[in-house]
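Service request form, structural biology core

Requester: graduate student, group of Dr. S.
Request type: structure prediction, single chain
Budget code: on file
Notes: please return the result as structure tokens.

Sequence provided:
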Amino acid sequence: MMRSAMSDPAANILVVDDEPQIRRFLRLALETHGYAVVEAATAEAALRAAVTRRPDLVVLDLGLPDREGFDVLAALREWSQIPVLVLSVRAREAEKVRAFELGADDYVVKPFGMAELLARIGAALRRRAQDQPVQPVFQVGGLEVDLGRRIVRVDNAEVRLSPKQYRLLQVLVQNAGKVVTHRQLLSEVWGAAHLDDIQYLRVFMRKLRDRIEAEPPRPRYLLTELGVGYRLRTPDQLTDPE
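Core staff response, request fulfilled:
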């Protein structure tokens, strides 16, 4: 078996999809890159495998014959923070938002490129391996956020942010590498009364980018997930394929 330098050969991946040909394709590709694979064709089988096999990551289809993939995700999040990558033909923004709000780590739309899927799986596994209490100083490229002292620097120069701008950046740092939906950001920064004020959030994000991005229209650190939310890149995501 070939083993990719980018993958953890011990990583065990649960593939949940009701289409046998998709499961076979994923098994072949993942095993070729050094992963062990467990398959499930239904929601019930997926939840059973999650408990008994304790996979390192789940690749989850949403259209399952017995229950929705959303139900699997919600059930997993009741007891586990295992990375879940949704792999679905559903491309609507509302479906993506729901998945992220239920706790998905990533979302890839079918048809998909295997190189992209492998990169996203690798990134999710690296985040899990590094998962620990948020470090007091977060750094990616030239951006440095000292959470303990509430200091932000870009290329070693201190940047002054308003309290709301800093809180917005802080929430993204605490979820670095993951998509944070509009409603999650609005709830964390402005409270439940502002869950629908997406345009308000966009204005603040534009101001925040003006402060920390060298080219705000082409952001390097604060990425937009169209119709869903925002993601703060981690160091490995500066080089991973998007």
